[in-house]
Amino acid sequence: MKKKITSFAVICVLILAAFSTPGASAQNLTKTNFISVMTPQFMGSGSTRLPIVFRATVQSLTPNTTYRYFNQAARYTDIGTVNPGAGNPMLIDGDSAIYKYTTGPSLTTSANFESFRTDASGSYTGWFAFVYTTNARFTAGNYIIPSIVIGNTSGTTLFRYALNDSIRVLAFSTSAGVNNCTGIYGITGYATKNLIALYDNTSATGRPLVITYLENIAVTVATSTQFYIDSVAGKNGRWGSLIPNNNANGVRRLQEYSLATGSSLNFSNDADGVWLSANTVNPTGGITSPLRLDSASTLLPVEISQFNSAVLKNTVKLSWQTVWELNNSGFEVERSENGSVWYKAGFVKGNGSTNEASSYSFTDLNLRTGKYYYRLKQIDYNGNFEYHNLAESVNIGKPLNSEVYQNFPNPFNPVTNISFALAEDSFVKLTVYDAAGREVKKLIDGNLAAGYNTLSFDASGIASGVYFYRLESAGSSGVKFTKIMKMLVVK
Fold this sequence. Notes:
Strand 34 (465-475) and strand 35 form a beta hairpin. By secondary structure, the chain is mainly β. It starts with a helix and ends with a strand. The chain is globular. Strands 1, 3, 5, 8, 10, 11 and 12 form a 7-stranded mixed β-sheet that branches. The chain is built from 3 helices and 35 strands. Helix content is 6%, strand content 47%.
């Protein structure tokens, strides 16, 4: 009898142990309950950091319940572990049309997670996204599996699920190859924050080549992709992504999808992949020569390829060049003395519609001493307009006060420019420090005449991260000036 009681006790202990840790196995990354609705075929790699968007259903949860979550991306070797992979979550709330971006995913800090609420069947369908990083998982040729970490409203992790589909990683290159890709961007009249997918067919069937969002989402991603920084980020209706270099069909359809419902909206087709301004068949532009994809069905703003400024005494001459023009009434030149309040300085008539490059100029006369900023407001005949913030600031005469300005570009990789003004002849020290306060590089340590100065800082030999630059000046009159600014290196 004693032997039977002992056996029964062991069974009870095993049963209790199984039910005492219900989340232990559930927290392992499993390829279940995360079902693809629409997942792109391709994504990029490295410090280019472009967004990857997909639509999916999370299922087998408690009905009518709110959960916290964030997304990353895994490799097959992560399956069965508590590691959801790598990448920075781009958090999308389709109901409130809010995007959030974080480099520190967490279920306990509001900035680092988003929430969804399940329906009566315990499911939720929505848009999800992440931004790839320099993590080794994102190596060209690898297949990445999007993942989701789910927790309760207290921040306790409940599940780690992997999508039932994968995405192939490509590298930007000017050579053909199954693992190579080329940058691509475009301008649409579609609604900001909605999603756009690129297909290699005109019927939008099968998996899209890529999916991304339409700017402006009011979120900044630290990227080293210059074409995205210059031509996409923060500009309404624009998008930027990549396409494979081995792509015989090219891009044949641009399809807009609703952020709130996922339903199909506007689209543009091209039967052979050779669009008005770009041949998307087997491209080899890499990251340095991205394709701009335009369609004749959208009245697009003018793209400006060059913008220059020249100063002669108290006169500023601006000159710029367009690649081609569509529906261009002209350019309103705006001027600012602080970079925030703008005034109309003049208007230059446009050339309407042309496939030829056009050159323009504008002269601003009789300016007083100071620092000025310029921008162009391109206006269509129908009244639509687009701002082109391409002008560098210009300086007239001697500065009234010493100042140091935000470096540009920022974030940067690997070179940025630091500008400062000296109200009088001064002994100047300009030094770069890391986040721990250690000196990284002294850019100048000597005498400079009064005026405006710009120095370049090359971060090739240092790691990604936050850095600071400190300007110290002692003027000939004995007046001292010190200011510290922050900058971000992204590799």
